[in-house]
Design brief:
Blueprint lengths: L1 E7 L1 H4 L7 H12 L4 E3 L6 E3 L4 E4 L12 E2 L5 H15 L3 E5 L2 H7 L2 H18 L4 E5 L6 H4 L1 H21 L6 E3 L20 H19 L10
Parallel strand pairs: 1-2, 1-5, 1-6, 6-7, 7-8
Antiparallel strand pairs: 3-4
Length: about 230
Amino acid sequence: MLRFMFVGDSMTIGSAGEHTWRYRMWQHLRDAYGRPFTFVGPRETLHDPSTDAPTSCAYADPDFPRAHLAGWGEGWHHMTPLIGEAVRAHRADVLLVSLGLIDLGFYTNPEQTADNVRAFVAAARSANPRVRVAVMPVITNVRVEADAAFAAQVHRFNGLLAETITDLDERRSPLLLVPPPASYDFHTDTYDGTHPNADGEHKIAGAFAEALHGEWGLGGPYTGAP
């Protein structure tokens, strides 16, 4: 059985009442992968806006493997110290990673964030030398319209991320840079300028699905909405 682990920030954990793009990915793999798989990780909950904490189990559809390693307000800065033990404890085979917006907004500059990517990969490989890691660059949010310096940091980090993935890629533990969905627009694919609505969930899941299929032969073309 192939074990996928989602590693992400608020766009991945989702909020109470949402499906999340994790659910859209499960639907895709259920229909396209053709072999046993599951989602693993130390967490299962959603973010609850009423408590401002990851305390909700109110998925729009809870009938899927909900395990993950994602957190509201968390980034590479937070996940790097956790990933080794998470991979080891849950025997993850494939990591689906979407991080960076929080880092650049609050914690680290592009170079420091890229250093955390390197440490993250090293820690994951220490737990599973054959782990595969698919990483999406930072998807911009509404802040880039009002903060040119932040927009420049995102652009700089995404360039460094591509270089880092190429540099660290190896045959027994491949790394994959997932092209962000070309049609993704934070004006229409989010409900608040950052967090994906249903269309955004499908577009993020579709980008990962197409990359996994095209580069690693996992699953098939993404056929979900929109």
